[in-house]
């Protein structure tokens, strides 16, 4: 690190971009958890499904930006369907029931997605969406640091989305209603808050987050069901930051993104590589042992 600071800067930049995208994925989980108190295991496959829908519509001849609009319509229809078919019958059921329901949603979307779009990887329509190409080379620390323009765009778009969602939760009436529903379904119903409308709104918002995440990740690699594994990196991000904290999702994402890049580049060769695939979960395990509520989570004490 000391001998080649330019390589360190390059590694930190790549980790920063990954961390911001991890934080964006984690926000999808936070949205559902805030509105229902239940962890949504299906958020990872929603990222894949949204990206595949966008690419699939374009392959059918739909113009790129119209395909984005239609994909948002599909995600809204998915949100309404989930609320009507899955969530509405399970109001006031134990949290574990709702959690297991998200497993069912996950495997339904996997099967439905493979049936409609096939299982082969697809290329994201980055050029058609006017996403930038090429790189910006900076001379830093006596060396050269290369910043991919798509990474810069991903970091900026993800940051704007995170800020918008934070403001939405903090300053809007719907955001306050979401927090009330998360505290108690029965109390929210007693003051006139409609669980049905809130759940549709929050699942649709999570679908928008999934689409943006899928576009950004797909533009950096490709669109396939393997992308779900990347999306599950949000799990350690949530453990670090706290399941109900938007600032926690940001900080946790940056820690995981930068940490795994540094680990893979500097310590990977010493132990055979592959650190990037498991380091995030190792860090999360440490937090579970010593601070299970995360950096920004509330410590819940139940008195008997």
UniProtKB/TrEMBL annotation:
GO terms for biological process: amino acid transport. The chain crosses the membrane at residues 12-33, 38-58, 64-87, 96-117, 152-172, 193-217, 237-258, 265-290. InterPro entries: ABC_transp_permease (IPR001851), BCAA_transport_permease (IPR052157). It is a multi-pass membrane protein. It is found in: Cell membrane. GO terms for molecular function: transmembrane transporter activity. It comes from the Bacteria. Keywords: Amino-acid transport, Cell membrane, Membrane, Transmembrane, Transmembrane helix, Transport. One of its GO terms (cellular component) is plasma membrane. The keyword Transmembrane helix applies. Belongs to the binding-protein-dependent transport system permease family. LivHM subfamily. This is ABC transporter permease.
């Amino acid at each position: 690190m000391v001998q080649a600071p330019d390589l360190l800067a390059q590694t930190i930049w790549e980790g920063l971009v990954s961390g911001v995208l991890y934080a964006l994925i984690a926000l999808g989980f936070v949205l559902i958890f805030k509105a229902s108190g239940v962890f949504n295991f299906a958020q990872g496959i929603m990222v894949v499904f949204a990206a595949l829908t966008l690419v699939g519509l374009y392959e059918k001849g739909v113009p790129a930006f119209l395909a984005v609009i239609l994909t948002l319509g599909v995600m809204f229809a998915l949100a309404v369907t989930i609320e009507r078919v899955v969530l509405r019958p399970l109001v006031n059921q134990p949290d574990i029931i709702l959690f297991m329901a998200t497993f069912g949603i996950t495997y339904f979307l996997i099967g439905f997605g493979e049936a409609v779009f096939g299982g082969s990887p697809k290329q994201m329509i980055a050029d058609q969406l006017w996403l930038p190409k090429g790189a910006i080379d900076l001379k830093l620390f006596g060396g050269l640091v290369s910043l991919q323009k798509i990474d810069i765009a991903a970091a900026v778009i993800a940051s704007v989305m995170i800020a918008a969602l934070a403001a939405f939760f903090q300053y809007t009436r719907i955001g306050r209603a979401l927090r009330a529903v998360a505290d108690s379904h029965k109390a929210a119903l007693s003051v006139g808050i409609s669980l049905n409308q809130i759940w549709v709104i929050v699942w649709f918002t999570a679908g928008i987050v999934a689409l943006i995440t899928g576009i950004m990740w797909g533009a950096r690699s490709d669109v396939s069901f393997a992308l779900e594994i990347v999306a599950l990196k949000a799990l350690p991000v949530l453990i670090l930051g706290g399941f109900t904290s938007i600032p926690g999702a940001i900080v946790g994402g940056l820690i995981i993104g930068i940490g795994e890049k540094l680990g893979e580049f500097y310590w990977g060769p010493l132990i055979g590589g592959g650190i990037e695939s498991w380091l995030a979960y190792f860090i999360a395990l440490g937090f579970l042992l010593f601070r299970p509520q995360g950096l920004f989570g509330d410590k819940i004490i139940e008195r008997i």
